[in-house]
Amino acid sequence: MEPQWKRVAVAAKKIGGIMVEHSNATWSFEAIPLNCVRIRAAYWQGEEGLPSGATLLIGEEIKYVNVPIEELLTIMEIAINRFVLFYRKETGKKPKLLQSLYF
Fold this sequence. Notes:
The structure is a single chain. The protein is about 35% helix and about 25% strand. The chain is of the alpha+beta class. The chain has one domain: TATA-Binding Protein (2-Layer Sandwich). A hairpin with a 7-residue loop joins strand 1 and strand 2. The longest helix is centred in the C-terminal third of the chain and has 23 residues, at about 70-90.
């Protein structure tokens, strides 16, 4: 069986992302879905007594782009939903209809 990070790398590439190192994360990738503003998704595999977790980060360049926070959240959600769709296809899982977290 192929390692999880390889499947993540394929899905990330399909949304224009690349794998990056992020402290002690199991895997992480960056994508640029909007005017040179990076988003980074980092995932930590759960361990004994600790649940899995993930975080989304926005690049510092957001300070120089005039984008309302509502639009930024929508763009981030679209990018992550596309990543999940491609990851599920890569792993052979059926696409899952996801509800918006914000609207």
